[in-house]
């Protein structure tokens, strides 16, 4: 803040009374800040204009004073009563005395003229000196203005009157080349400011600099609702979005380390077999011909496909394409090759092989005089394989047939994906697959300890070592290069993308990160913070949307949006340093929580039940013969550093045993413009049925996706207009005025409200409106409990923030009937104030007789748990061990546990 304020102060040699730009805190004058900057930049030029005007007035006075006075007479016009000024010039004949007087007068006038000339020369010299001084002052002011423009322009991003979504005309300065944290409660407007305003405008301006031909092939960015954004840099967004789970995409391909290792093996490996493409599982010449470079074989599980106790006429083939009435079933029956009424269990082996593996064969049936009907039949396994692996396969057919397949490692390449020739090449006694299967930390140590590097190896290994160092420092050293990207969490995906940017040498970029601490244990956060500082120190602007206290403490600047969520948010509560935030907590919920000292607490814990869930000898990934017991009807926390095996133990092992468990995982909410809180919580169907019952109409009439939708906008309420090379523009539908429905549908009302009026209500208003209808009321009550009472019932899910999406997902599952709830990092995207609400919800579930298991890193949740299972001590091969099972008070005494070390200051011990 001190750097920013000193930069904004205008330097001047003449006027010492010019005030600092910020006499009051910036958050209280957010609209005036930008205006002051503009006014002070132009201040010098305005003062110069005033001085020039004063000069002109003085000259005019001097000219008036130097004029010769003439004798005037004032005469009145008798007819009109007006006064007329008449100048009289009288000429008299000269006389001797008069001539003498005239000569004397002329002498006096000559003397006066000489004196005037001398005075004028003196005045001219004085004016010249004054003009010089004024010129110097003017130059100085221009120089000062240029300095001010440089300070304000280059060192700050200026945002004026941002009104995107719920933002309420906020204006602010964001210092450049600093680490800036944007915080606030979930739904306060952080995403609207950072992603939809700042990032979107940066990308839009960048794309506009390209030719129209190039723009046609690039994403279109809509201009955000903001009057002005100045001095933007090119931006890169590092989001929490999971990396796409392509079967061929791995950690090695996404970080491009696979390319360097292929090059290394092709140049330095023995025996030498040729170019680097021969080591690529994505190239035809380098991939395994059995699994086609995927490393996995998909084989049909006949027990999943066939019911041996049924006949073909009884739908013994479970795939719907072979059910009665379908085309494949008709051909199967017409071929007359199989007994249709005989259970499959009684078939002989030869007939069964025909059903499964017979090549495509044509048969003549119903042969008559001049008419021959031909049908073809092909074995079921062959047909399904064509669905799954054929050239004309679609995502729909693949998804439809996947459930009949089982996965196993390729029998030819054992999962290495590459050809036999590539598998035989060694470099420093290591096969390529050995290197790819190493953990990143292990691989880094292996490369660092190599001595006497060959001249060809040096540049390749230098780049590999640099990238591996960044990945390990970001806390993902337990991963391997061969790990598929589809198995990574959102936090792991984000850190891999972040590491890729750290190797970039570009400067003066604007990096935007979405909660980079998600999925990180407190032990790992310190290394992440070091990398954020490193990115800033390279000369970049780093803007982080974050709730974590540790990140705020090291930030150069903090922007707090709030004070509440939805319509209660969108205001600029504070901007400045962490010290200023703590000293000025007014209107900032964040400041209130930062000021609360982390005093140790002694929460009341429930008695541990004698009934337990048990996991015995779990062996998966890094788990080795792990056995644990989980008490029922308690709040159980599963902790440990990233990669210690928490998700493997609970999500992959335990969940498969508990088929009825209600699982809230890290998968995002499916967002589109037609889904809303009512549709996601399955409440809209109940409301439509209620309207149908009250009005005597069909329930489908009250759906904006069906018969009741507006014919013009198809139920969207707006029409998207394509502008070719410009941004697409969405305008309200003129036919329905944005209400989504046909006019005749809106005539049907319930208690004076149409279906469109209901969609415009907030959750709180809807709860009061439907209080007599228990099922609707129950679902809306749950939304209120998770703090979403401000949302509109018909608000598209595509407009929700990450924290709002997380809470609506929790709300949609809380009211489901069950006795076991499993939540994977539910604190993701939640502010400190929102976490308090989450803890209350979890406690309510347990008090109602349910068992709740939470996989978490957030210590504010762990300290309230009744039972804790801590895994570790490290990640990957160094993890997979149960370090502790028991009460949180006892965990802090476990020397091996890093969780206990960080939990100790938060729990009071008697």
Automatic annotation (TrEMBL):
One Gene Ontology MF term: DNA binding
GO CC annotation terms, alphabetical: cytoplasm
Origin superkingdom: Eukaryota
Residue stretches of biased makeup (Polar residues): 1-16
Subcellular location: Cytoplasm
Keyword set, alphabetical order: ATP-binding, Cytoplasm, DNA damage, DNA excision, DNA repair, DNA-binding, Excision nuclease, Metal-binding, Nucleotide-binding, Repeat, Zinc, Zinc-finger
Domain ABC transporter: 152-588, 603-898
Compositionally biased tracts (Basic and acidic residues): 29-39, 47-66
GO terms classed as biological process: DNA repair
Ranges annotated as biased composition (Basic residues): 67-78
Family matches, as Pfam families: ABC_tran (PF00005), UvrA_DNA-bind (PF17755)
Annotated region (Disordered), positions in chain: 1-87
CDD domains documented for this protein: ABC_UvrA_I (cd03270)
Keyword Zinc on entry: yes
SUPFAM superfamilies linked: P-loop containing nucleoside triphosphate hydrolases (SSF52540)
InterPro entries the record matches: AAA+_ATPase (IPR003593), ABC_transporter-like_ATP-bd (IPR003439), ABC_transporter-like_CS (IPR017871), P-loop_NTPase (IPR027417), UvrA_DNA-bd (IPR041552)
Keyword DNA repair among UniProt keywords: yes
Name of the protein in its database record: Antibiotic/drug resistance abc transporter-related
Source organism of the structure: Anaeramoeba flamelloides
């Amino acid at each position: 803040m001190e750097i920013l304020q000193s930069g904004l102060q205008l330097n001047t040699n003449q006027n010492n009374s010019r005030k600092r730009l910020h006499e009051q805190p910036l958050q209280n004058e957010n609209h005036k800040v930008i205006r002051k900057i503009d006014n002070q930049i132009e201040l010098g030029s305005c003062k110069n204009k005033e001085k020039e005007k004063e000069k002109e007035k003085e000259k005019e006075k001097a000219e008036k004073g130097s004029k010769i006075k003439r004798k005037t007479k004032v005469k009145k016009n008798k007819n009109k009563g007006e006064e007329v000024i008449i100048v009289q010039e009288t000429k008299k004949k000269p006389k001797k005395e008069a001539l003498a007087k005239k000569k004397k007068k002329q002498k006096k006038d000559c003397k006066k003229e000489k004196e005037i000339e001398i005075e004028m020369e003196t005045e001219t010299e004085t004016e010249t000196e004054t003009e010089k001084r004024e010129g110097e002052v003017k130059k100085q002011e221009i120089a000062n203005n240029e300095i001010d423009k440089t300070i304000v322009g280059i060192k700050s991003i200026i945002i004026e009157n941002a009104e995107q979504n719920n933002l309420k005309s906020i204006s602010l300065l964001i210092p450049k080349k600093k680490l800036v944290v944007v915080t606030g409660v979930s739904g306060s407007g952080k995403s609207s400011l950072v992603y939809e305003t700042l990032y979107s405008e940066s990308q839009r301006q960048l794309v506009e600099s390209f030719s129209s031909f190039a723009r046609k092939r690039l994403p279109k960015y809509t201009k955000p609702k903001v009057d002005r954004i100045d001095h933007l840099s090119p931006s890169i967004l590092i989001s929490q979005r999971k990396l796409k789970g392509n079967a061929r995409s791995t950690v090695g391909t996404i970080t491009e380390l696979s390319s360097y290792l292929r090059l290394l093996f092709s140049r330095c490996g023995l025996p030498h077999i040729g170019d680097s493409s021969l080591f690529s599982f994505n190239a035809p010449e380098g991939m395994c011909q059995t699994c086609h470079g995927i490393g996995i074989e998909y084989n049909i599980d006949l027990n999943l496909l066939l019911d041996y106790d049924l006949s073909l006429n009884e739908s013994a083939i479970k795939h719907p394409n072979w059910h009665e009435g379908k085309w494949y079933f008709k051909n199967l029956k017409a071929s007359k090759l199989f007994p249709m009424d005989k259970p499959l269990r009684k078939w002989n082996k030869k007939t069964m092989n025909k059903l499964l593996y017979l090549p495509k064969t044509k048969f003549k049936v119903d042969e008559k005089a001049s008419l021959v009907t031909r049908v073809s039949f092909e074995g079921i396994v062959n047909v399904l394989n064509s669905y799954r692996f054929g050239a004309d396969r679609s995502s729909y057919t693949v998804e439809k047939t996947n459930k009949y397949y089982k996965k196993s490692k390729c029998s030819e390449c054992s999962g290495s994906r590459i050809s036999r020739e590539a598998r035989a090449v060694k470099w420093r006694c290591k096969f390529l697959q050995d290197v790819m299967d190493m953990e990143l930390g292990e691989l880094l140590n292996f490369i660092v300890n190599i001595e006497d590097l060959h001249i060809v190896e040096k540049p390749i290994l230098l780049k590999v070592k640099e990238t591996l160092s960044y990945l390990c420092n970001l806390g993902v050293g337990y991963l391997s290069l061969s790990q598929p990207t589809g198995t990574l969490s959102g936090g792991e995906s984000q850190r891999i993308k972040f590491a890729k940017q750290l190797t970039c040498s570009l400067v003066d970029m604007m990096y935007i990160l979405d909660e980079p601490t998600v999925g990180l244990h407190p032990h790992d956060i310190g290394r992440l913070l070091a990398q954020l500082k490193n990115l800033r120190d390279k000369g970049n602007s780093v803007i982080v949307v974050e709730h974590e206290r540790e990140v705020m403490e090291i930030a150069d600047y903090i922007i707090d949006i709030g004070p509440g969520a939805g319509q209660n948010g969108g205001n600029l509560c504070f901007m400045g340093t962490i010290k200023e935030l703590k000293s000025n907590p007014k209107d900032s919920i964040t400041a209130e929580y930062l000021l609360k000292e982390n005093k140790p607490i002694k929460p009341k814990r429930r008695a541990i039940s004698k009934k337990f869930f048990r996991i015995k000898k779990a062996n998966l990934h890094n788990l080795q013969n792990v056995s644990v017991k989980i008490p029922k009807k308690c709040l159980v926390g599963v902790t440990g550093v990233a990669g210690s095996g928490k998700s493997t133990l609970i999500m992959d092992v335990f969940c498969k045993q508990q088929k009825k468990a209600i699982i809230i995982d890290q998968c995002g909410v499916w967002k589109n413009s037609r889904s809303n809180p009512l549709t996601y919580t399955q409440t809209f169907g109940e409301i439509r049925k209620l309207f149908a019952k009250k009005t005597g109409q069909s329930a489908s009439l009250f759906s904006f996706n069906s018969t009741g939708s507006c014919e013009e906008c198809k139920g969207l309420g707006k029409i998207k207009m394509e502008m070719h090379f410009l941004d697409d523009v969405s305008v309200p539908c003129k036919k329905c005025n944005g209400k989504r429905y046909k006019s005749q549908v809106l005539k049907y009302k319930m208690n004076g409200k149409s279906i469109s009026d209901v969609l415009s209500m907030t959750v709180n208003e809807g709860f009061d409106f439907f209080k007599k209808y228990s099922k609707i009321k129950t679902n809306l009550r749950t939304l209120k409990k998770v703090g979403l009472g401000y949302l509109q019932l018909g608000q598209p899910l595509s407009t929700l923030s990450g924290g709002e999406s997380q809470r609506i997902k929790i709300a949609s599952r809380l009211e489901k009937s069950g006795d076991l709830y499993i939540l994977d990092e539910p604190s993701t995207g939640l502010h400190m104030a929102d976490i308090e609400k989450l803890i209350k919800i979890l406690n309510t579930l347990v008090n109602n007789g349910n068992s709740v298991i939470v996989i978490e890193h957030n210590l504010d949740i762990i300290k309230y748990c009744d039972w804790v299972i801590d895994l570790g001590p490290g990640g990957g091969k160094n993890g997979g061990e149960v370090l502790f099972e028991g009460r949180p008070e006892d965990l802090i005494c476990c020397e091996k546990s890093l969780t206990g070390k960080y939990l100790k200051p938060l729990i009071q011990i008697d």
